[in-house]
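FIELD: query
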Amino acid sequence: HLQLVESGGGLVQPGGSLRLSCAASGFTLDYYSIGWFRQAPGKGREGVSSISNGNGYTYYADSVKGRFTISRDNAKNTVDLHMDSLKPEDTAVYYCAAGRDYVVGFREFEYEHWGQGTQVTVSS
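FIELD: result
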């Protein structure tokens, strides 16, 4: 009943931009902390960005800081990840995840609900 669906992935040139969205059904996303994770070819899953419930604290991996922005759109019940200045190393499947507690960062056990992912490919 509780579902997360990512959208917005695709193929983009290096230096380009994409906006990913994480949409919730069955629960109100504003009540949850949200994390964005990614898994690149041949690598494990890594945290990208998170936004906490409550005070809305945002957190970014060093590799994306200054390029990616996470935000909530409560009217649409989504959390978005705007990605600028994309690099080939950003190529990955991107996942969103939701946790009901106040979460900062990328401890996966704190996120109870996960989407199926959306592919981002940065290539010329």
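FIELD: remark
The longest strand covers residues 18-25.
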